[in-house]
UniProtKB/TrEMBL annotation, chains A, B:
GO terms for biological process: phosphorelay signal transduction system; regulation of DNA-templated transcription. This is DNA-binding response regulator. GO terms for cellular component: cytoplasm. The lineage of its organism: Bacteria, Bacillati, Bacillota, Bacilli, Bacillales. It holds the Pfam family GerE. It comes from the Bacteria. The keyword Transcription regulation applies.
DNA sequence: TTCAATCTCGGTCTTAAGGCGGAGGAAGAA
DNA sequence: TTCTTCCTCCGCCTTAAGACCGAGATTGAA
């Protein structure tokens, strides 16, 4: 039996998930909570094998709850089950220690499978989310372009689109002289010799 | 009931598939054939909903049979089920009018699912094959660079690597003037304004 | 043979690109 | 406040880039 706790502030969602999970006799729903704070307490008290956690909740969000739980009970597998797959949500959740990341568009079967896999130590990442993660990873292995300032990065991406200095200056509403300055700084930071190589850099590093 | 015909010159394979399909009561195996010619005749006579067709057969291959059938009976869904996923096989099959394309490494369940989906109008393409198709599509939608001469393509790829005219001339053992000529021709053929855009073109079209 | 395409190279000219040095203003950290 | 970073912009200068025009050599097809 896999001991499970469901944390979601929408009762209908929570009850629905629980009802479905109870149709399979592998799951033992030991508790449920409607907020991050409540959920964290319950989890630390009951020490379930797996937790289904929503991210966006009224009292204390899922990320904080996840972080808090993982500090006290690192063996607990927390599966994030949310509607959002923005960079702002996914990354902090993974960093907080979430074990799997599913979207609410997932089928009941997929969720059940994810719980079983989590109990046996396998991660499950929603494809859409996986893509985001790959991107994050890429930007994680910070390359030369992490030394670029925001403005320089903007200019670099313009170069990556094949724009001339003139076009860039018009797009960014700055003087062409300024663009040239940025370009020069970019070239030296990326250690390339001209804008063409900079454009190649952009595409090789999939910045665009 | 979905009326199905199985065409495959290996009896064991054919009988095996039929035996499995008969375990599900949604399928009505109305006929079977061991060659493309025989299969085409049988299909036109019995007008099944779905046909499972092997590609490599002794008498008349599956592609010709498919083409022939589709001319007479375009509503018939022909599922190609073969061991090969070479470019030479896949593409002609699709062009001949094949509805789905599966490999024999597929599980029985997948095949059954594919038949049901075909009956309801949904295509199923084996992932490995889908990849090939994507590539074919890319080379099918012939882009601007197909008008380039070999030499020009060489130069273009150099540009895509961020090389200067000087470097290109040294690599290809030609004068820098010649390189400039090629570059000018490339730019006008690709309808871009400078080498940076040409480099972007290379990477966007994954020529490198 | 004639013709077309391709590769090669030349001259001339204009301009975008990029290096170098300097500098003022704004915002945030020490 | 002082210092630093960043964004902005200036002038001067050199050179690579690219357009335009022409042309000889080779090859293969008609």
């Amino acid at each position: 039996m896999i001991r499970v706790i469901v944390v979601d502030d929408h009762e209908i969602v929570r009850k629905g998930i629980i009802a479905y999970l109870q149709t399979e006799d592998e799951f033992d729903i030991v508790g449920e909570a409607s907020s991050g704070n409540e959920g964290a307490e319950l989890i630390l008290e009951l020490k379930p094998d797996v937790v289904l956690m929503d991210l966006m909740m009224e009292n204390g969000n899922g990320i904080e709850a996840t972080k808090h739980v993982m500090e006290q009970l690192p063996s607990c597998k927390i599966i994030i089950l949310t509607s959002y797959y923005d960079d702002e949500q996914v990354f902090p959740a993974i960093q907080a220690g979430a074990f799997s990341y599913l979207l609410k568009t997932s089928s009941a079967t997929e969720i059940a499978t994810a719980i079983k896999k989590a109990a046996s130590g396998q991660n499950v990442i929603e494809p859409k989310v996986a893509g985001k993660m790959m991107n994050s990873f890429r930007s994680e292995n910070k390359k030369a372009h992490d030394t670029l300032t925001e403005r320089e990065l903007e200019v670099l991406l313009c170069i990556g689109n094949g724009m001339t200095n003139q076009e860039i200056s018009e797009k960014l509403y700055i003087g062409i002289k300024t663009v040239k300055t940025h370009v020069s700084n970019i070239l030296s930071k990326l250690e390339v010799h001209d804008r063409t190589q900079a454009a190649v850099y952009v595409h090789r590093n999939q910045l665009l």
